[in-house]
């Protein structure tokens, strides 16, 4: 099945919707999985993680 001109025009109208849903899904995945590599760069939210540095004795 090939996409015609009409289908391409209809899909182009939904690009902002697709981007918004994709971004929301990514943020939801980060929130639910508690992805520390990303969450460490979010201000105020990263304070729940303790520092992994060991004190020098």
From TrEMBL:
It holds the Pfam family UCR_6-4kD. The chain crosses the membrane at residues 12-32. The keyword Iron does not apply. InterPro entries: UQCR. Keywords: Membrane, Transmembrane, Transmembrane helix. It comes from the Eukaryota. One of its GO terms (biological process) is mitochondrial electron transport, ubiquinol to cytochrome c. GO terms for cellular component: mitochondrial inner membrane. PANTHER family: CYTOCHROME B-C1 COMPLEX SUBUNIT 10 (PTHR15420:SF2), UBIQUINOL-CYTOCHROME C REDUCTASE COMPLEX 6.4 KD PROTEIN (PTHR15420). This is Cytochrome b-c1 complex subunit 10.
């Amino acid at each position: 099945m090939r996409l015609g001109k009409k289908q391409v025009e209809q899909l182009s109208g939904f690009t902002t919707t697709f981007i918004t849903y994709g971004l929301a899904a990514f943020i939801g995945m980060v929130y639910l999985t508690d992805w520390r590599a990303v969450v460490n760069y979010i201000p105020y939210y990263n304070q729940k993680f303790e520092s992994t540095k060991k004190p020098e004795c």
